[in-house]
Amino acid sequence: MIGQITAQVRSSLRVLRTGYRKDSRLGKLGFSLALGLTLLVSLLPFYVMLLTSLTPDGQIYSNTPSLLPNTITFSQYTVLFGSETFAFGAYFLNSAIVATVTASFSLVVGVVGAYSFTRLEFPGNGLVRRGVVVVYMLSSITVIVPLFQLIATLGIVDTRLSLFITYTVSTLPLTLYMLWNYFESLPIEIEEAALLDGYSRVETIYQVVVPLSLPILVAAFLFAFKIAWNEYIFASVFLKSQAKLTLPIGIEQMNANFQNVWGQVMAASFLTTLPIVVMFLYLEQYMVEGLTAGGVEG
Amino acid sequence: MAGLERYFESPAQRRETLLGIALILPSVVLISGVVLYPIVYNVYLSFTTVPLNPNQAPTWVGLSNYVDLVTSPRFWQAFRTTLVFTVGSTVLSTLVGLGVALLFDREFRGRRLARGLVLLPHVTPIIAVAFVWQFMLSPLWGTIPNILAEWGLYSAEAGLLSRRSTALPTVIVFSAWRNFPFAFLLFVARLQAIPESMYEAARIDGAGAVAQFKDITLPELKGTIAIVVLLRFIWEFNAFAQVWLLTKQVLTLPIFAYQTAFANFEQGLGAAISLLLFVVQAMFVVGFVTLFGEDKV
């Protein structure tokens, strides 16, 4: 019995450690072909995006589109930042502000909320917790009409505040979920020791729990940042003036208002993608957690 | 409420309970204000006509919005399109995700990097990938139609995205491309948890690759498959930006609601459509909770 269990544990540990199992279900060649095809399909659009953003207009609109680089130019990028026509710099800044503020709000509200879920008993704890997960499955489209009415009544149409509030709430369920899962794994003894030393609960949160949770706090912040950075529907309804547009709406308008600006649109798309890819290098190890909580649209 | 007393028995306990409530309060207030209250308000709005001026109150019109909807062929057309889109992209993204996960369930050089790259379609901003797909598929400048035309597989006269008949399948393919990494990641995590000894035992019994897949892998994955299909179904049914930004030729219910409310400014009617969407969504969420129990939630 014991032997069986240890054998079982050992074999799963081996799989976990090496992350593979040996098999010959597919020949080596077949495997390489399948993997190559998967990567090609996944990455081709990103390649086209980068390539087009580096191609001079004359070649983009030639009759023989090609997947190989010919002449490389940075003119699409200089036009994007240099000309009066495109307010790309402003869109980028707006998105950065909105995403940073939102992710910070979400983190502060999330830390205390998740701590309350995991360490404090209060009536309705379980109910609120389940409610948070259910709310996360809902989509923006179900609340967009009443929310717009509400925003209009409050007189905050076309303000960043409208985005701060709605984005904080869109990101909050994921932040709460990631943090409470992590807090549950922290040994309670450390906090008890702190409490015995005369720390108050609130001091314990900021001087013991937060420092112990830094990696997951960064991950939660970045996930929230990504959701806000990618968000389209709220921004498209709440924002009106050019100066306040975020990247998704700004790029859409570039595309809609001008003919044949694919070079600039691709350059803008690439610059919008870049921060997310950089963050993703850090986030990858948290992806399973972040995704199972909800594969957030956006 | 006798049960409540245990939270307030001693002063220390009372303090803990009050602190617990105080700390969760910001989350509860925010979620109630931005999600729960709007859902309730939406029910009211769906029975009204909303004037353009936000200072005027909506006028009660009873069931008239709903009557308009069920008698409108456009609504039923959008409903059918939504179903085809939802089923199509759920099935396709789950199957591709499963296939790629099986492919990754072994050791090879650069596995970690490759796994990260495969996830990119899912995490990058929708605006960027929707536009690059539009560009790639454009009949004039796009590389894909051009290559297909060179091979004689396609005549690049009308764009795939500009004709209604080809736009829907294209949006389904785009959705599957964007969302298969979600299924892939959940499957790959689950596959790694299947003990190698099960496969060893099966091999000793002489089971081939197909038998191993059918008798070990598939039963072990059953729960994950159900979760993936259900979650994808809920989200695809309500998908907005991934369809809207790729083509204006596919009218699903979320797009119908958005256009009705914010292009035609018939917000009462828009509220009625989104309420119907919410009901369908709620049914699936309840299904999710009953199927997987509250622990999973």
Secondary structural class of chain B: mainly alpha
What structural class results from the helix and strand content of chain A?
A: mainly alpha
Q: Please give the alpha-carbon distance between the first and last residues of chain A.
A: 49 Å
| Rg result of chain A | 24 Å
Q: Strand count, sense and closure of the main sheet of chain B?
A: 2 strands, antiparallel
Measure the end-to-end span of chain B: 26 Å
The rounded Rg of chain B comes to 25 Å
How much beta of chain A, percentage-wise?
under 5%
Protein name (chain B): Carbohydrate ABC transporter permease
Pfam families (chain B): BPD_transp_1 (PF00528)
Organism (chain B): Salinirubrum litoreum
InterPro entries (chain B): MetI-like, MetI-like_sf, UgpAE/MalFG_permease
What's the gist of this structure?
Chain A has 298 residues and is mainly α.
Folded structure, characterized:
- The complex is a heterodimer of chains A (298) and B (297).
- In chain A, helix 5 (88-119) runs parallel beside helix 8 (160-185), helix 11 packs antiparallel against helix 14 and helix 13 runs antiparallel to helix 14 (262-283).
- Chain A has helices at 2-18, 28-53, 57-60, 75-82, 88-119, 125-137, 144-153, 160-185, 188-196, 201-212, 214-230, 233-238, 247-257, 262-283, 287-292.
- Chain A contains 15 helices and no strands.
- Chain A is mainly alpha-helical and 298 residues long.
- In chain B, helix 9 runs antiparallel to helix 12.
- Chain B starts with 10 loop residues before the first helix and ends with a helix.
- Helices cover 73% and strands 1% of the residues of chain B.
- Chain B has 297 residues and is mainly α.
- The model of chain B has no long low-confidence stretch (mean pLDDT 88).
- The radius of gyration of chain B is 25 Å and the shape is flat.
- Chain B contains twelve helices and two strands; from the N terminus they run αββααααααααααα.
- The interface between A and B is large, with 111 and 108 residues.
